[in-house]
Amino acid sequence: MQKLEDIKLAIIGLGYVGLPLAVEFGKHRTVVGFDVNQSRIHALNAGYDSTLEVSDEELKHASLLSYSCDLDDLSTCNTYIVTVPTPIDGYNQPDLRPLIKASESIGKVLKKGDLVIYESTVYPGATEEDCVPVLEMVSGLTFNVDFFAGYSPERINPGDKEHRVTTIKKVTSGSTPEIADLVDALYNQIITAGTHKASSIRVAEAAKVIENTQRDLNIALINELAIIFNKMGIDTEAVLQAAGTKWNFLPFRPGLVGGHCIGVDPYYLTHKAQAIGYHPEIILAGRRLNDGMGAYVVSQLVKAMLKERIHVDGARVLIMGLTFKENCPDLRNTRIVDIVNELAEYNIAVDVYDPWVSVAEAEHEYGITPVSEPGVNTYDGIVLAVAHDEFRKLGAKNIRRFGKTASVLYDLKYLLSREESDIRL
Fold first, then answer.
1. What is the sign, positive or negative, of the torsion defined by CA atoms of 154, 256, 281, 244?
2. Which of 21, 79, 69 is nearest to 45 (CA)?
3. Using CA atoms, how far apart are residues 187 and 167, in angstroms rounded to an integer?
4. What is the mean pLDDT of each run of 10 residues along the chain (425 residues)?
5. I want to staple 403 with a disulfide (CB 3.0 to 4.6 A). Which of 73, 93, 322, 407 is the partner?
């Protein structure tokens, strides 16, 4: 087993999770940042992070960090941290292909005594049941004899400049007690908030997957309450503000549930639960409700347009925001596309405006070409879908300028007051 001072580190995957981690380690020790996306490597070598998670200045400060898409550059490393995506497929089943491919790549350079730490969100057991066998098969080495594994789930919050990788407590674990101590010590070199050493890899995996499952279910409850209160003609936000005066009422708000975590992680847990013969009723019910919110939003918008005697067939609607959350360019699993697709079912023409997104990425991922600027006096309906600061600064008066004289303004994110919008979720 290697010592902490002998670790030669590689970060596999330089996205929203991997790059901030590599930068922090790169301030203290030599790190190779590896990614299969050659254009990503070129941009980072030029000192620019397209995810905007790391500033140009922060990249400069990581003086011990180098970038590569050449597997040979990992041959001198002995510790690998895997931070690749773990999405779901079209059937809401875990897609482990990025994780398996990363494990195959590491297996080609894995040596006796090496350590592989996974950060990607998975179901309990995936590290030892799915990833380790790949490492063994490709490398020809034996787990916990020739090489070791750890798991330390990522807790990155894209766009959040307050809760950064170093200021969020880190869960750590290892495949043996000694390796658990080593993994914990490694992360303690950069995590100022401290660490929590889990008793096993499976415990650490389970802890990660339930964090977002809990949030998903809480939001599902509030979404269902919003639907009920809308039918009763009661303002949901007013109810939540009143209930929030009690000290232990949790401050969740209704909305679309997308992104790489909350809208995905519960499916990893339900997949594993079903694989062992248990059907998770509550978790899947919450998922169904949250996944149906796009269609519900459109139904509310269409009803409001009809009340204003706006002809729905052939109408034009502006969607303000495409990212899965405010003030970041992250398009992963954005549920705004549900609104766009549902509006198309009504033969409604849709323009999407989002100053944060890459047009090329939006076109590649969703076939959507955002407009550079909305037209004035153009739209029959406007949906404030993402709470970007730019939209907040515009205010109701300027946002309404995009609409026709008879138009409907739907505020999904409570950016405006009740009086300034026509409908709210």
1. positive
2. 69
3. 12
4. 89 95 94 95 93 89 93 95 94 95 97 97 96 98 98 84 87 97 97 96 97 95 97 94 96 90 92 96 97 96 96 97 94 94 96 96 95 95 96 95 96 92 92
5. 407
Give the integer Cα–Cα distance in Å for 217 and 126: 23
Which is the catalytic residue, given 69, 77, 131, 261?
A: 261
- Separation of alpha carbons 253 and 385, rounded Å: 14
pLDDT tens readout for residues 90-128 = 899 999 999 999 999 999 999 999 999 999 999 999 999
**Burial per residue of 269-285, b for 16 or more beta-carbon CB atoms within 10 angstroms, e otherwise:** bbbbbeeeeeebeebbe
- For residue 376, what are its two tokens? 């004035």
What is the Cα–Cα distance from 252 to 215, expressed in whole angstroms? 9
Amino acid at position 17, single letter: V
DSSP state for residue 130 in the 8-state scheme: I
Q: Which residue has the tokens 């939209």?
A: 391
Cα 270 vs. chain centroid, distance in angstroms? Answer: 18
Kindly state the tokens that stand for 395.
Answer: 């205010």
Question: How long, in residues, is the chain?
Answer: 425
Q: What is the DSSP string of 304-327?
A: HHHHTT---TT-EEEEE--SSSTT
Q: How far apart are CA 92 and CA 293, in angstroms?
A: 16
Judge whether 261 counts as a catalytic residue: yes
- Residue 373's pLDDT is what? 94
Query: 124-183 pLDDT, tens per residue?
Result: 999 999 999 999 999 999 999 999 999 999 988 777 677 789 999 999 999 999 999 999
